[in-house]
Write a structure and sequence with these properties.
elongated, disordered N terminus, Methyltransferase, Cobalt-precorrin-4 Transmethylase, Domain 2, 5-stranded parallel sheet, about 30% helix, Cobalt-precorrin-4 Transmethylase, domain 1, alpha/beta, about 550 residues
Length: about 550
């Protein structure tokens, strides 16, 4: 084939050794070019890609067996013209996981054999000194079949990669909303990940792109909902191709989702101006508040949405940012324009510093706790962190919520109707010796008390030791309330005695209330009722 007078892509004058390679070791005189053809629209081909396709001696493209090549479609006219000039075309048909194979090595063996054959075919042309262009849909270095071929030859010949418009960029343009802004974090994930891993990665990001859909769609949608992204998520199908469409992920029929689909979760900040324009001025955070910034620590209550107070709901609506343990943040409805910063349950100090820093920069931050924020929750962590010259000028407000102890007590009756105590059995922030001393103080004072964080998978001995210690001070018939997941559909409340209490049924979603000598239980019309008397033998 005859090349034009200007220097073509892949010619000696344009060659650059691949990063980390040694051109002296090349044993193949030809040139391999990975040509990115964009998402499917011929008008999105770059000028460099067009020139490379026109000037290549050989053009290679992939497809599923028995199907046309999606990568060849945007270059159809160029390939037709090249064929007339004698350009050689190679159509590689690869096996797919959804198909059947009689290969003795199964799908993995069939795919390995495919790449061996592909390598031999391409190697023959490179050995003859030809320029081989391998077409790649989207960008050649992003989830592309070309990557495998590149690795085969990058140390054996001159290799060039021509970048292209990815499906990510194409789908974002269809949605027509910024993908990321300011200091937002973007994650690009494959829908083939396990759902738990999808949830983890999406939860730790502000914006997202999910690729490789089709049969994975339902799993992806569940993960998006868990991460609080579902209301922002848009499914874009067949980007740049015939039949291109976009619709909210929440409304998509999973059975209609093709493989060539991308989920875009655009910038949270991108929606802020739109929100401000549509909301009455009295409901918008004014500029002075944004300039000042503040941290508001709120308590959602112990589980049920109905136990979240109107005051807390108002603060959640007004916040620009939510900060908290992922399990609690996911209880809060997603609001357009509001950023969510989720973490695990072991970084209270870091979480507090993060919230204070954002408030110092003018954000209105709600730190979310379960129950009441002042009871074994985030209020103390925020104030302790704020007690520093770096943060002391940041306004901090605490908005109360119903405690878990109140909710559990109400289910049994009134076990906390007189003097009572509260204690956490977690020894993550205090030594067990101190916890044991306080258990003895509570039991010895003859007070009913509520037990938070009684046990975890790794920490079983504490709740067993609690029973032993209390039994030294209280009688075997002392009422004990064991309540799990109060306020949820899995709620279970058991009223038993100290002697019959089984510590093995307790986990981190359980609260235990231990009665005093004045705590009584009786059978009422709706079952056992427990109360702690308001008198101590006084008339």
């Amino acid at each position: 084939m005859t090349h034009s007078a200007h220097t073509p892509a892949g010619s000696a004058a344009s060659r650059t050794a691949p990063f980390g390679s040694d051109d002296a070791a090349w044993d193949l005189p030809g040139t391999l070019i990975g040509v990115s053809v964009g998402p499917g629209d011929p008008e999105l081909l770059t000028l460099k890609a067009v020139r490379a396709i026109e000037q290549a001696d050989v053009v290679v493209y992939h497809s599923k067996k028995g199907r046309p090549s999606a990568a060849a479609i945007p270059a159809k006219d160029l390939l037709g013209a090249g064929r007339q000039r004698g350009q050689h075309h190679v159509h590689l048909e690869y096996p797919v996981t959804t198909g059947s194979t009689d290969h003795p090595g199964g799908y993995a063996g069939a795919l390995a054999e495919f790449y061996v054959d592909a390598e031999r075919t391409i190697e023959q042309f490179l050995a003859e000194g030809k320029t081989v262009a391998v077409l790649a849909l989207g960008d050649a270095m992003l989830y592309s079949s070309y990557q495998h071929i590149h690795r085969m030859f990058e140390a054996r010949c001159n290799c060039e990669v021509i970048p292209g418009i990815s499906s990510i960029a194409g789908a974002t343009a269809v949605v027509a909303k910024p993908l990321t802004e300011d200091d937002e974090t973007l994650v690009v994930v494959s829908g083939t990940l396990e759902e738990a891993e999808l949830r983890r990665r999406l939860t730790n990001a502000d914006c997202a792109v999910v690729m490789k859909l089709g049969r994975t769609f339902n799993k992806v949608r569940c993960a998006l909902e868990h991460a609080g992204m579902l209301d922002r998520a848009v499914l874009v199908t067949r980007v740049g191709m015939d039949g291109q469409s976009a619709q909210p992920v929440r409304e998509v029929d999973a059975s209609t989702v093709p493989y060539f689909s991308v989920v875009i979760v655009p910038s949270v900040l991108a929606q802020q101006d739109k929100i401000r324009a549509s909301v009455p001025k009295r409901d918008v955070i004014d500029s002075a508040a944004e300039t000042t910034g503040e941290v508001v620590v709120v308590g959602l209550g112990p589980g049920a949405q109905r136990w979240t107070t109107p005051e807390v709901q108002h603060e959640l609506e007004q916040a620009t940012d939510l900060v908290g343990y992922s399990t609690y943040i996911n209880r809060v409805p997603q609001r357009p324009g509001q950023r969510r910063h989720l973490s695990d349950n072991k970084v209270e100090a870091e979480r507090a510093a993060f919230a204070l820093d954002m408030a110092k920069r003018g954000r209105r931050v709600a730190v979310v706790s379960s129950g009441d924020p002042g009871v074994f929750a985030m209020a103390a962590a925020v104030l302790e962190t704020a007690d520093d010259d770096l943060w002391r000028e940041v306004p901090v407000r605490i908005i109360p919520g119903m405690t878990a102890a109140q909710a559990v007590a109400s289910r049994a009756g009134a076990p906390l109707g007189h003097d009572f105590g509260m204690i956490s059995l977690s020894n993550r922030l205090k030594p067990w010796e101190q916890i044991e001393k306080r258990i003895r103080a509570l039991a010895g004072a003859d007070m009913a008390f509520a037990v938070y964080n009684p046990a975890s998978k790794e920490r079983r001995e504490h709740i067993e030791r609690l029973k032993e210690i209390v039994s030294e001070y209280q009688g075997p018939n002392t009422p004990v309330i064991v309540a799990r997941a109060v306020g949820s559909e899995q709620e279970k409340v058991t009223i038993t005695t100290l002697k019959a209490f089984d510590p093995t049924v307790v986990d981190m979603r359980t609260m235990v209330i231990i009665g005093a000598s004045t705590t009584r239980a009786y059978d009422g019309p709706q079952g056992p009722r427990v109360y702690t008397s308001r008198t101590y033998g006084l008339s």
